Every structure is written in structure tokens, then in C-alpha cells.
Amino acid sequence: MNNEFLTDWGLTLMVFLPAAGALVMLLIPKADEQAHKWVSMVAVFASAGVGVAVLADFDYGRTADLQFVVDKPWIDVINARYFVGIDGLSVPLVALTLLITPLCIIYSWNHFPEPRNPKAFLILLLVLQTGLLGTFVAQDLILFFVFFEVVLLPMYFLIGVWGAEQRQYAAIKFFLFTLFGSALMIISFLALYFVGGETFVIPELARNISEPAAAGIEAVPLATQVLIFGGMFMGFGIKVPIFPFHTWLPDAHTQAPTVGSVILAAIMLKLGTYGFIRVALPILPEAAVEWAPYIGALAVIGIIYGALACLAQTDMKRLIAFSSVSHMGFIMLGIATLTDFGLNAAVMGMVAHGLITGMLFFLAGSVKDRYHTLEIRRLGGILVKAPRMGWILGFTAMASLGLPGLAGFWGEFPAILSAYDPGAGLSTVTFRVYMVIAALGTVFAAGYLLWLYQRTSFGVPTEEFEDDDIPDVQVPEWIAWVPMLVLILAIGIYPNLVFRVTDDQLTSVAQMLTAAVGG
Amino acid sequence: MVAQNIFFYVIAAGMVGAAVAVVTTRNVVRAALYLIAVFAGVAAQFILLAAEFVAVTQVLIYIGAIMVLMLFGIMLTRARIGRDVDMTNDHWWVGVGTALLLAAVMAYSLIDRWGDDALPVDRQVNSVGGSNTATVSDSIFSQYLIPFEIVSVLLLAALVGAIVIARKDR
Amino acid sequence: MLRNAWIIPVIPALSFFLILLFGKRLPRKGSELGLAAVGAAFVLALVTQVQWFQHVNDAEHESEPTEEHAAQVVTVSGVSDGEISAPETPEQQGEESEEHASIEPVTREWTWFEFGETEAEVGTLIDGPAVMMLIVVTLVSLLVHVYSTDYVAGDRRYTHFFAFLSLFTASMLGLVMSRSTLQLMVCWELVGVCSFVLIGHWWEEKANSDAALKAFITNRVGDVGMIVGVIVLFFAAGQSFDILDINTQALSGDISHTALLVASCALIAAVMSKSGQFILHTWLPDAMAGPTPVSALIHAATMVVAGIYMVSRLYGVFWEGLSIGVSSINLLALVGGVTVLGGAGLAFVQNDIKRVLAYSTVSQLGYMVMALGIGAWTAALFHLFTHAFFKACLFLGSGSVSHAVHSFDMREMGGLRKWMPHTYRTFLIATAALIGIFPFAGFWSKDEILAGASQLGGAGNYRVFTVVGIIGAFMTAAYMTRCVYLTFFGEFRGHGHPHESGPRIVVPLWILAVLGVVAGLVNLPSALAPDSVELRFEHYYEPVGAYFPSIVPEFAHPEFSWGIAIVSTLIGLIGIGIGIGWYTGRIALRGISERNALARAGYTTLVNKYYFDHLYTDVIAAGTKGPVARGVNWFNQNVIDGVVNGAGRLATASGRWVYTHVDQQVVDGAVNGSAAAAQTGGQVFRQLTSGKVQQYGALLFGAAALFAGAFIVLI
Amino acid sequence: MDDLMLNQFLLLAAILFSIGVYGVIARKNTVMVLMSIELILNAVNINLLTFGAANRDVAGAVFALFVIAVAAAEVGVGLAMVLIIYRNRQSVDLDEVDSMRG
Amino acid sequence: MLATLAQADDGFVRPVIDWHALAPELVMTAVLCIVLVADLFLPEDRKAVLPSLAGLGLLAALIPVLTLAVDGADRTMFGGAYVVDNFALVVKALFLVAGYVTVLQSTNYIAEGDYAEGEYYFLLLSSILGMTVMGSARDLVTIFVALELLSVPAYLLAGWRKRDPKGNEAGAKYYLMGVFATGVLLYGMSLLYGVAGSTKLSDIGAALAGAESLPAITLAIVFCVAGFGFKVSAVPFHTWAPDTYEGAPTPITAFLSVSSKAAGFVALLQLVIIGFAERTDVVRPMMWVLAALSMTIGNVVALRQTNVVRMLAYSGISQAGFMLAPLAVVGQVGDDTLTSIVTYLVIYAAMNLGAFTVVMAVARKTGSAEVSSFGGLFDYAPSLAVLMSIFLFSLAGIPPLAGWLAKFVAFRAVIDADTGWAYALAVVMAVNSVIALAYYANIAKEMWMNPAPDGDKTPVRVPVSLTAALAITAVFTLVFGVTQWATELGDMANFVANIRP
Lengths: 519, 170, 715, 102, 501
What we know:
With 519 residues, chain A is mainly alpha-helical. Chain A has helices at 4-27, 33-57, 90-108, 118-137, 141-150, 152-162, 167-195, 202-210, 212-215, 222-239, 248-255, 258-283, 285-311, 316-337, 340-371, 382-385, 387-400, 407-420, 428-457, 463-466, 475-493, 496-518; strands spanning 67-75, 80-86. In chain A, a hairpin with a 4-residue loop joins strand 1 (67-75) and strand 2 (80-86). In chain A, helix 1 (4-27) packs antiparallel against helix 2 (33-57) and helix 10 (222-239) runs antiparallel to helix 12 (258-283). Chain B is 73% helix and 0% strand. The N and C termini of chain B lie far apart (59 Å). In chain B, 41% of the residues are buried.
């Protein structure tokens, strides 16, 4: 926190550099593809560079505090502020975002999906990046909402233009679902604004509602809180997605271009869970306690349901998509327990799922590039044709099924753990039932992932591809994948990489929740 | 006073009858003539309400201008002068329903609000001048100056526009 | 070395990465790295062993002034990085130190991660069982490495094979010296993965990958129990993963009995899958699809005993949770007992030599679990120790055989003793050890279990398990005889010319065979041995401290019992006899039927034999092998395996059903339905705009009137 | 019955208004629809003048004058529309003017 | 005679005319006369000057608006019948700028379409004049006359394509519906006058405040609202809009959907907030129903449209529903109703005009406004496709485009009321904003994801005036979304203090 420039401008630069890159690219003619690639590269790396500087300068000793705070008036009439800052909860997700998008651009370097058009593709990626980063640093509900929504358009176009056969249906489904959630969410935000002392600033709202007397407002009745939470539940829950709002996800994932799937899985789904922890829980702890059993129930249903649906899939990408439903269930279960374990598990789950499922989608994309199909029964023997890719797929599948020693485990296990002893005010019996069901979910996870692996990678190649030349992992792929693989392993071996950052912040959230119920 | 009442009811009955004829007759020209009768009745009622200037205007503009325009319209569209087979469309019952509903709502509201109110015997606004006309003009050129100017632009616009639309060329 | 034991697993772990990255470029394709690493680990394990003996001896000397010791415990218990013992109450300390010196485990830990106030630690916990396992794992692993350099030579994934052997060794060593339940669980899963990879080593064939999947997924089922158990213990012990803590609290009564019972039952599920106990054992025979060295190392000597080791590690929990000390039957013993008999019965009807050995392993693991269930901790670990050697020897022997005849089918073997003398002899020795012939290793360990079953526990002891054990011993003898007979005796029924294997295979066989003979001597009962050599195993490996039930009064060691020893030996011999008789007899009978006239002539001489034959053929052997074994086998293949496979199929089918009917129709249908509803609504409301302006007008006037009317009425 | 009641005029206006509405909806010929509209506007004028008289206020009369002026303008525009429709369709049946719908 | 005159003189109060306050209207009047006269004298090939003249006139009229804004004082004339306050200034500026964009849109359309040019701009300016007057009108008579001045030229302009039967139909339907609505409105106004005894809104407000809740008052309010409901195309008074939009010249469609609708809202705001402020028992439920119906029916019918202009008509109906929503909580939320509706109007004008401009630009090539004709636009005219997407998604309310802020302020006002009905309306709004996205995105889909019909990929040539219109609307659409300017305009737009009860 020495560098004043960094303190004042770091986050803003980080968020808006990609958008600035996109503006520059608008001025470059479409034909000059190299220029587009390099400008986009420079933009994301500049953003990542600033981001890394910020993260390096971040004081890890007090992660519970907001740092790099910039608080300026924005839309005065509605009391919306440009209020950004990062704390222990934001840091891992910001870091994840800063990592994934550059990797996506590198991955796309030589093979843009049809109908190519790198200019538009990269501009959309950059706008997406700004939206994602912005969401993770925004501390004002309106700013948060705007960034939360900014990601919709680029993703809509990425799916709709560069996607597979059913892309139009998938794109609009994705869009409508998410918008439905956000429309209800914004109602809740507004209701919060009016009951919470006419401010949109998240920490202030949390303070005001927990201590109405000090803020000079009326205490918010529990019934109101529960309803307001409901709106946010819809907004964040659809984004997560929680069963039964998940149906957009398989379609979107299956149809999206590789990079789109990766970003969708790795980062965008996290907006929902992040929203729960950032917005919903701290502001409305009492309502969170009321809602938690239901969220937990939907979470475990999602775990089992997603897994069962995986078993029925014939398409590799769709299977991975449904596995996301299942995995996000673990994250939601962690959140629903309202404990520091659960919240830590959730954030770890977000990071892990981001890396692992992102990686799986990368692999699915590469398989598709090579085989021009993702139909599981037509694949087979990847290990024979492209052994390195096969091994990487195996490694990632293992990580995804929650193998200890790899990142996925640290999202799953503590989530299950936390359900044994849920936070104050929650029914222990209910959550222990959830715990057992969730633990059973890990069996299914092993089932569908290994089954997938067996059918795609083991055995000998099908006749169709027997004589085809299937190239093994190539340079851009290596560059894009190695950091993710290394991180999966590193976090798996030393989970404190994440927990150390998140713990203080999330413990304070959990304490707030306990205090709200206790007091 | 009774005379006024008698006058009113006679005229009113005629007006209603003529109005009904306007909307039921199968002959366009005859409808126009019935309409003139209604307009005349309205003018008469205006006099009863001590609004001589408006009554005069009513006669001048409605009967003198508007109805002439209408007749021109009838002529130009070569509507048959005689009886037309069917001047009422298939959905006339919708009209009956709507009209009755409207009438009921209006009548209820009016009776509820003004059921017992009588008109003042002296309905002149400016008793000194003996006529409402001067008051009206004063009012138009002071209080209602802006609408008056605007209406002039409106009439100009309507004139110009109607000519452009109705003109055969272009 | 005791404090730096972490180096031992780290060496093979490093070797894993090195082999993976550079193995293919090395002259011997990476096997030299693996060998070197495991060799180094073995040497270090030996060093650790010696130091541990020293440590135990020191502790005994130091324990004379009790007060001082207790003080020392208190002072060091707060230090996170150093030799500490589990916190003990001085009271217990004093009570117990009259008999035994408390032997402090040597621990070392590092912070792994923190949640709120809870700190999860990773580290090493070196005490008796850990040291013992270090030796077993590194030794068997080393021998298997040596063996493999010949056995899998020329395999296309030679390098990978060694890489994963290294990783397995590392994980298993990590498991052995786990400081916390969490670490235990992590390593537990890692060995599972190595097992998966190595079973599926030849994944080109679907059967192999099927077996690998089955192994992994079945283990996952058990892992649910593991997860639940660990979690229950974590919270029950006041948010601690610390094994010593948990045990100490369990034994001191700080944890409710319910929690312990739940945790025990959950953990038993994990044991059932990992250690191949009924009914989750079915993956283990299938796992024989992997290369034979893998079967020897993972599915006989080490990984499958992880379940037993885990129970022995958390013995305080099981002891209290299942009330082992005062009951006469409990879930753990029951699971073990059923497995003893079930596994042995199944071993009868296998034609694949490795599957015979696999079921034998299942059965022997059942002994160990049973032993733990009845409270004979030392016996269980002792049996684990001896079993590791002779069973590894048997597996490697079967591999050697298959190397010669290119098959595992015993119907294609026979008479191999002529061509493969070394293999034959070592196999025979190991078989004797397995059957429990005096003085081979198995005799001592199995005997201790049987003695324990008859002497330990509450009222009535665990006598029923003595019977189970003896029947099991009989069956073991019978099926192993069959196996040996079919393989090494009679005529060669296969193709080609079998030949003895090379030195890299034979030398490990001999080493293991020798161990199979002498390993039993490390725990000679006091009745049979001088003080200086009696019960050395118990002395050095059984923990003494607040974290182990040795502090509670009910915890006892069985005395050597001549009766049991003789009965079991006899039973074993009868089994062998029947086995020999069965096969020679059947051949004789076949001869009789073929040469009818001669039979009649030799009737008198043969009649005794015939009745004898009849007795065991129809009554005993057929009774066991025929209906019972077949029945068990049928039950196994159709019901248990059917349930296991069926569960998989059911999951897939229900997945498909859920997907097509619920997801696509109900959930997605609701979504698409609402879209359709909106569209239909659009269609309906389009009628408002009919195109006829007079209807528009009617709507305008009508609506105005209706609004007015409605509000007049309503307000 | 001595005095003129306010309601006499108002109800007369209401009846004229309703008749006009019926005509507007039911008449086929566009010119006749225009005529019906005049009934409506006249009804409004009666209202305005009645209230003006009742309040002894001149605004009603002024308002009515504006209405008359505007009505004149509207009729002009309306007849222009009728003419152009007639020219393009050879018919002034409002029923048939429905090429755009939905 | 003289005596009579003298007597009359006594009664006559010379009105005080504030020329500065009237300056915008005077400039407009002057310009429209100039246009009319210039048309007479300009030769056929010089008529291109006319749109420039009209445009400049509108900008010139903007100058006094700005000086008045700088001056800042509220100006009241004719006893409160005509007021130039901040509200009036904001909406006047809106009408003038939107009018300018309409002129830009019309330039090529009218010049190339062989329509009467001088009269077109004359009528357009007249209509805009009517709107600017409406902004200041606080008296029933003035409101009525202003309404007619803005409507009558619009009827004519809607039927301007007089050789096309659809054009006639558009004009005729608009005209007839307009006159019907006028009838209803006038009847309502006459009752208001009868109840209050005055035509001034402030007097009416005072009178209604004191009166009991009577059927006659309910009737009057309902009829007045219905009359303007037609103007803002609220369901069930919306029926004319799609037909008229489709048949009218596209610039006029844009004009009707933006300026004319805004004028309707201006009148409604004045009536409701000044006149009916105390009669919220009628106004709120009425507005609630109108808002909910407009949003829902407008949206679901829009889903079924295949013609972009018709779709925009229905979308406009739905947007009107959103704008009506804050009126459903009028009186419960302080200034929020006014602020939010004005903000919404300003933003809506920018984005909707923009969308229509793109439709015009595309139609220049394809000659069609069918949704399918937009296929492949991103391929051959990426800028237009991007701009259209910006406008459409802004209309759908996707941040950071301005539309979200418009919807947001509407939500904010509604939720501020904190009643069950308000929340119910908010939920209806939320659901509708989702339905709306479906059809907006449908066009985006066509442009980005489908191939060009017939594979025709010749680029679209966009004339300068359309480019200018696009630039203005796009800049506003983008800038309003991330700055506070639109809301500040809305916030500024308050009625003069002494006129509000």
C-alpha cells in the first residue's frame, strides 16, 4: 500500500484496461487480424499486470478489510457510487479472472471458431473481462449490478455467433434466464436501498441493517428481509445455477465456443456464488438463516441431480456442463451452512471449479477441434492417438471428481464437512442429511467422470478415426493449460494458498451471521 | 321558467330523435340533414344557457362550414344519394352495448353529483355589459391568449395539410 | 530420522515427477529412478526402525522416575513442532506407568491451512505401527520394483508403470505416517488412484478399464463412509483432525459414545471397500486385471491393508465406539468373520490363479478385520505383517508362472514343478505360511488371532469367531492345496515350453519366501521363547500411551494356547489332506471308471479309499466346494456383484430417466412452456388489434366506460 | 320543475354522446363516422356551457369555442383522409380498411 | 358603441407577456412560417434547403430554452395557465432535440420519396410547436389546444404516403382513434371543469382535494387518463399504434413513438401530479392496471411480430407501461414519479430514435422492415449491426447501455412506495423486462447469427443526415448509461413550486 498511484488507480485501471483495448480495436480495420490479436493481448496483459501489482501490494495481513478503496460519487440522483475495493473474498476471484482470460486469448491464437472474425471475438472477450473484473471489485450494489449485467451481452454473442448448431436457442435461453434473475435481483437491491438507509454501498447497508438504531432507520422486519433475500436468491441462484434454474447451463455450455465455455464455467458461474457471499449474506444475515435450509436442499438436489443427468449424457461437453451443476451444488451447500468452513469451502470451490472445469472445457474444445465431434461413443482411445492430451484429461477428471491432493477436493470436502455443523439457527439434523447426500454425490462424480474417461480415452480408437492423424497437444494449448494444471496441483497440495487469503474475511462474515442470529 | 323547460324538452326530444336518425338512417345525405337538425338544437340549447355568442358560432361554423364540408365529402366520395343497402356494419351490437354502458355510467355519475342542482336564474356572467359576448372576448384575449394563437397555427396547419393530402398530384 | 521421516515419502514422490518428466529419456526408461528412490526409502525406513527401537528402549529407561516424565509431557505438549505426546491427564499417566512405560510417538507437523480458528496440519506421526508399515511397504515395494524390471520389460508404458509405482509408494508411506485424519484421507484416496491407474494399466482392453473403474468407484462408496467418519470425529473432538487428539479424547470419554459409534460404523464402510470386506469386496478380484506386480504390491501387501491400518490407527475410536473390550460381537468382527468364510469359499471355484489368491487375500484381510474387531490389535497387525510377505510371494510366484505359460488359467498349467523349481519351492513355502503350518509365519499370526477370539472380549468372549477362524483355516488349506496341485502337479496342460524365470524375478521370490518363514518369529509367544525374544513385535510396535486402548483395563493380550495351536494346525493339515485326496482321488476314480474290470479286481484294496473318498468327496468336499462354495459363488457373482454392477446400471438408468423425463420435460419443459405460453398469449392478444378501426374505437370507449364503472363501484 | 336543472342539459349531453359513440362504432360509411364524432363533440360543448352557466363563468364558453374551432380543423383533415382513401380504394367502407392487423 | 367599448375596456385586463419565456415558441412559429413561405419560392432542385432550415430552426429554438435554463427563474403567466419552469424547459429541450433528430431522419426519406417537402416540415414543426406548448400548459384549454396542435399535423403526416393504401390506412386509423380519444378526453375535461369551476390545473387540484370521492370525479379522471392513454399508447388504448407505425413514413413513426408519446406523458404528468394529486385513490389503481396491461400485452404481442417496425410499436407500448408504472405510486414517493418518468423519456427518446434510424438505414438497402431482412447485417454492415444491437439491448435494459438506467429509475420509484401493490407491479415489470429481451434479442440474433437473405452482401450506404442521427442517438445511449446526466435532467424537471398542491 505504498504506491499511491496504485492505491488510487490500480483497480480502476485493471478493470477498464481491457475495455480500453476494445475501444482501440474498434478503430482498427477488421482485416488486420494480427493487430487485433496483439492489441487484445496487450490489453489483457496490461490489465493482468496492474492486477498482479495490486495483488502483490495487497496487505494479506488484514484480508478482512477492504483495500485499494476508491469511493467517488457516480449517479448522484440515485445515490449510486463508484465504490471499488478488494478484500480476501475478491482476491482469489480477481486473480482467477486475470489468469483465465489471457489464457483464453492465447488458446484462440491460431484457431478462432467459425465464423472467425477475430476482431469481434476479441472485442467481446475484452468487454467480458471488464465486466467480470468489475463485478469482483464493485462494492456498491448498483455498480455491482451494472458489471454483473455487462457480461451478458458479450457472452450472448459469443455463444450465439461462434457456437455450435443449436447456438441461437442456447444463447437466448442463457440471456433470458439470467435477465430474469437480475430483474428480480434489482428489485431486491432497491428494496434494500429504501429499507437500509438509502445507500447502495454494501458495507454500509450491512451495518445499517444490523444496527438500525445507530443508522437512524427503522429495524427491518424479518418478513421483509426474507422477501428481499428471495429476489437476490433468484438473481444469484440462476447465475450459479441452482436446481431447478439450471437448464440454461447445459445448453449454453454445449453450444458455446470453447473459450466461451471456459469463461462461462471458470468465472461467470462464480458471479452468482460470489454474489451470495458478497451481497446477500452480509446484508441480510437473518434472512439468510431462514433461507439456508432451502438453499441447502436445492444444493444437494443439484448435486445428485446434476450427477444423474451426467450419467445420461452422450455428449462430452454436455456432460461436463451437467457436472458443473453438480459441483456448484457443493459450493452452494457450503454457502448454505453459513459457517466459516462452508464459506471458505465455497470460495475454494469456486476457484477450483473455475480451474478444473475451465480446463475440462478447454480439453473438450481441443477434442472437438481434432475429432469434429464430441459424441462420447464415437470417441475412444484418445490415449492412443494423443497420449498427452489423454493424460491431461485424466488428470483433470481426477481433479474434478474431488481427488485429494488436487484442487477439487478442497472445495468439496470442507463443504461436506461444514454441513455437519451448520451455523447458528440452522437445523443440525437437516444439514447432516444434506451432508450424507452430498457425500454420496462424490460417488456419482467418480462414476460419471471415470465413465467419461473410460469411453473417450481408454480402449482403442473407433474405426472412424483409426487412421486419422490426431495431433497431440500443441504449443498454444500448452501455454494455456500448463498454468491451470500447475495451479490445480499447487492448490491441491497447499490449499492454504486460497484459504489464507479468504479466511479472515469469510470468518468475519460468518461471525456476522452468528451475531445476527444470536443477537 | 316553465316555458324554458317546455322549450328545453321539446328541443331536446327533437335533438335526440334527430341524433338517433343520424346514426340509423340508411341514407347518407339524410343523415347529414338530421345532423343539421341536431346542431340547430344544440344552438338553441346554448341560447337557453345564455351563450348567444357560442350559439351563433355554432350555427355559423357547424351548419355553415362543417356540414357543407360534410356534404362535399359525401359528394366527392360518390356515396349514393338514395338509400344504401347496408350502412351499419356487422358489429353494430358492440356499438349498442358500448353506448348503453357509457350512458349508464355517465347518467349514474351525473345524477349522483348534480341530481338536485338548479341552474342560476341569471346566467349572465357579466350582468353589467348585458351580454356574455364581451366577457368571452376579453377572456380569450387575456387569459386564453396562448390557446387562441395556437389554434390559429392549428387551423393553418390543418388547412395546409388537408390540401396536400387531398390534392390529386404528388 | 524419526523426526525427519517425512523424507521417506518425499523421495518416491519426487521420483514420480522425475520419471514422468524425464523417464523416457533415461537409458532404462525411468525404472532406475524408481528403484533408487524406493531403495533409498527402504534404507531410511530401516534407519527409522533402528532409531525407533532405540526410542522405545530409551523410553523404558526414562520411565523410571514417573513424575519427571509427566512433567515433561505437560511442558512439550503445546509445542507444535517437536516431539510431543497426546495430552494425557496426569492421573491416567500415573496409573498406567506402573505397568508400562508410555512410549511417546514422534510427531512433527506443519500448518496445512486454516479455517477460522481451526488449523489443519500435515505432518508425520511415527510410532510402532507406522514404523512397522514403513518397513513392509518399502520392502515389498522394493522387491516388486526389482521384479517388475523383468516382468513388465518391453511394455509400451514401462515408464508410466514405474512412475505410478513410485507415486503409490509415496502415497502409501504418506498414509502410514499420517498425522491427521485429513492427511490419512488424502493419502487414502491417492493410493486408490494409483490402484486405479495401475489396474487399468492395459486400458486398451475394456475389461481392464472396467475393472479399474469398478475398483475406483467401489472405493468411492466406501469413501463416503470415510468422509462422514472423519467429519463426525472432527467435530466430536472439538474441531480437530489430529489422530492422537481424537484417540485420546475417545478413550478419555470426552466424546460421546453415539458419535464414536456413528463414526466407527461410517469408517467400517471405508474399511469394507478399501480392504475388500464383504460386501464391497467385488472389485478386488476384478483388480487382478492389473499387472501381477501391482497385484502383489497393492492388492495384497499394502494398499488393501490400509483399511486395517486405519482402524488400528483410530483404534481408540473403534474400541470405545464398538465397545470391543466388553462385547462379544460387533460390526467390525462380524464383517471380518463373514469375509473370512466368504472369501475362502469363493477361492475354491476360481480357475484363474490370481483370482484364487485375490479371494484368499479377501479372506485373510477378513482375519485381520476380525482380529481388530475382537480386540486383538497386535494379532491383527502381526498378521498384516506376515501376510504381506507370503501373499506378495504368492502373487509374484503366480506372475512368474504366468510368465512361463502366458496364462493365469490353472487349467492350462500343471506339473510346473519340474520346469520351475524356484518358483515351485517359494510358492510352496508361502502356501504353507498362508495355511499356517508350524513354524511358518502364518502359523504364529493366525494362531494369535484365534487365541484372541477365544480369550478376549466381554462375557462369552468372541468364541464364535474362533470357530469361524478355524473353519476359515481349514478352507484356506483346502483351496490352496487345490491351487498348488493344479499349478505344479499333474501333467502340463498348457501350450509351449514353460521355463523358469530370470534372477530378477526369482531373487525377490526367495527373499519373500524366507521372510514368509521367519517373519513369524518376531512375535514368539512368551510360552515358547526366552524373554529376550518373546513378543518383540508387541513390545516395539504396540503403542503405549493415552491415545491407545492399552491404557484401559479391558485391553488385554491373548495368551498362547496349545489347544488352539494344535487344533488349527490339525485342521490345516486335514484341509491339505482332503485337498490332495480330492485331486489324486478324483484322478483315481476316473481311472477306476475307465478300467472297470481292474477296479473290481482291486476292490478290496480300494474300498477303504473309496469310502474315504466318498466321505470327503460327497460329504465334506462336495459339501463345501459344491453347494456351499457354488452357492457362495453364485451369490457373489449374481447378488453382490449384481448389486454392485446393478447399482451402477441403476444409477445410469435413473440418470437417463431423470434427464429425459425430469430435466428435459419437466424442468426444461417448464421453461419452454412459459415461452410457449408467452407466445400463445401474444397470439391471443393480437386479436385486439384486429385491423378494424371501429373495433379499436369500441375498445377505447368500452374500456374507458369499464374503467370508470369499475372504479365508481370499487372506490 | 320550475327551474332549469343542471342535469337536464348534462343528461341530454350524455345521451348525445352515447348516440355518437354508437354511430362511431356501428356506421360503415366513413363520412357517417365523422358525423357521429360531431355528435360527441357537441355533447361536450353542451356540458361545457352548462357548467359555465352553472358557475357563471366564462371559461366554459371559451372552451366550447375552442372545441368548435378544433372540430372544424379536424373535420377538414378527416374529410381529406376520406377522400384519399376513396381515391385509392374506390370505397369509403371503414370495414374494409384493415390491411394491417395483428 | 364607444361606451360599450369603454366598458369593455374596464373589464379587460391586459395580459402580462413574458417574451423571454415565450421565445422558444416564437422562434418555432417564425421558423415554420419561413419554411412554408420558402417552400413556395424555392425551385424544385433547391428544396433540399428545407430540412436544413427546419433543423436549424429547431436548434435556434433550443437557444432560448438554454438561456431560460441558465436564468433559472420560474416564469408564470396568465394566472398559472402557462408556466415556464424547469419541467417545461427539460421537456421542451427534449422535444426540440428529438425533433431535430426526426428532421435528420426525414431528410433523405422525404427528398427521395417524392413527397411534398415544404408542407412536411411545416407540419412537423407545427406538431413540435404543439409539444413545446404542452410542456408549459397548466390549464385544460391550453392543454387541449396544444394536444390538438401536436396531433392534427401528426394525423396528416402519418398519412403522408398518400398513394400507398397502407399509408392512408395508417393516417385514417390514427386520425379516427385520435378523434375518439379527443371526445373522451373532452368529456372528462368538461366534467373536471364542472366540478372545479375552473380550467386551471392548480384550481382543479385544490377543488378535487376538498371534494368527496364522487362518481363524477372518478369518471372525469378516468376519461382524461383514457384520452392521454391513447396518446401514450397504453393498453387498451393502444390499438392504433402498430397499424399506424407500420403504414406511416418511418421518420414519422419514430416521431410518433418518441415525441408524441413523450408529449402524452408530459400532459399526463401535469394532469396527474398537479390536478389529480389528491385523487390517488382513482389514479393509482388506474395507472397500475394500465401499466401492467401495457407492459404485458405489448410484450407478448411483440413476440409474435415479424415486422421490425410493428415490433417496435408493440415494444413502445410495453415501454409506455414501464413509464406509467411510477404513476401507479404517485404521491407515495415524492418527486420520484416525476424524476423517473422524465429520465425514462429522455433515455427512451435516444434509444428508440436510434433504433428507428437503423431501421431506416437498412430499409434503404433492403426496402423492407421485416425481421428477416436484417439477416447477416453484421456481415455486410457491422457498424449498423453493432449500433442496432446497442439500441435494442438498451431498450431491453441491459447495462451499461442507457436503457437500464431508465428501467432502474422506474423500478426505484415503484419500490420506494413499499406497498404490496407496488412490489407486485415491480415483479410484473421484472418479468416483462425478460419477455422484452426475447424479441429484442431476436433481431440481434437475425443480424449476427443468420446469413443475409439471398446472400446479398452489398454494403449499406448511409447518408450523412442518418449518420448524424445515429451518432447523436448512439452517443446519448452510451453516455446516459454510465453517467448521471439523464437522471440529473429528470431530477431537475420539477414543477414550479407554487403550483403543486
